[in-house]
């Protein structure tokens, strides 16, 4: 069923802390995800709404992981429980979550160079903390090799497969096969790494938590951030290296993957 109405969020579920709230709709690339910026008593919040489908961990598992990361000193937005004592409010088949709004600058305003090192270091710290999470998370396991060579590869033109992918397939497979898996963010693209005043101010959207090779997550974040700045003609030649250096300082897996990248270059 296609939804045509964009209902206002049920802010009354948090009426004990939201006095005369003002909500403003925000854009999101995923049509199933709806966002509002909410202000009340000079404090800022975000309301995030999902439909029936969640891509990874459930809300309880995500909440526990966020508390673990917060206890480890990592800047994350932990959901604020409703007046009824639940993690979310429900309206029809949609779920609404209220979180504090973390400081962040617009993507166009982000500097490069040193900030790339800060982002890389934050990703290393994030996944070091995730690796120490003590309880199982009910989600799925991501097999990056299967996705790359059994699924995504088939979508490429045959000429591209034979000239640009097949020559490297054996090297990539042998290098990545058997690397340890751990709990990862799952969607660590540039838009989910918040930066304020030249420092990483938070990581958001952990709803795709899952077990996978850390190398896959590192690559997603690296290329997402670098390509974003390259599209704006602001990337510096050392930007990718600075990012990788930030992560490699904290993870032997990323050093292994950096060597693989160099071998394929």
UniProtKB/TrEMBL annotation:
Record-annotated Aminoglycoside phosphotransferase domain positions: 36-243
A GO term for molecular function: amino acid kinase activity
Pfam families associated with the record: APH
Family matches, as InterPro entries: Aminoglycoside_PTrfase, Kinase-like_dom_sf, Pseudomonas-type_ThrB
Keywords, ordered alphabetically: Transferase
Recorded family membership: Belongs to the pseudomonas-type ThrB family.
Protein name: Aminoglycoside phosphotransferase
Species name: Kribbella flavida (strain DSM 17836 / JCM 10339 / NBRC 14399)
């Amino acid at each position: 069923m296609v939804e045509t109405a964009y209902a206002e969020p049920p802010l009354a579920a948090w009426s004990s802390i939201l006095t005369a709230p003002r909500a403003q709709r925000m854009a999101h690339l995923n049509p199933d995800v709806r966002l509002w910026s909410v202000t009340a008593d000079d404090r800022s919040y975000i309301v995030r709404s999902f439909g029936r489908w969640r891509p990874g961990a459930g809300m309880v598992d995500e909440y526990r992981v966020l508390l673990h990361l917060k206890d480890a000193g990592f800047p994350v937005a932990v959901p604020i429980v409703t007046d009824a004592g639940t993690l979310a409010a429900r309206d029809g088949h949609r779920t609404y979550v209220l979180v504090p709004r973390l400081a962040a600058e617009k993507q166009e305003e982000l500097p490069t160079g040193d900030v790339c090192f800060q982002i890389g270091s934050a990703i290393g710290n994030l996944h070091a903390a995730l690796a120490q999470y003590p309880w199982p998370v009910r989600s799925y396991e991501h097999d990056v090799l299967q996705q790359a060579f059994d699924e995504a590869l088939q979508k490429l033109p045959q000429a591209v497969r034979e000239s640009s992918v097949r020559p490297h397939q054996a090297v990539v497979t042998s290098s990545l096969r058997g690397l340890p898996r751990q709990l990862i963010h799952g969607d660590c693209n540039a838009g989910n790494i918040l930066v304020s005043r030249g420092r990483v101010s938070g990581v958001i959207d952990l709803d795709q938590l899952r077990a996978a090779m850390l190398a896959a997550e590192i690559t997603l974040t690296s290329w997402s951030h670098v390509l974003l700045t390259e599209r704006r003609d602001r990337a510096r030649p050392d930007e990718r290296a600075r990012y990788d250096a930030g992560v490699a300082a904290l993870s032997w897996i990323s050093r292994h993957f950096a060597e693989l990248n160099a071998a394929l270059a």
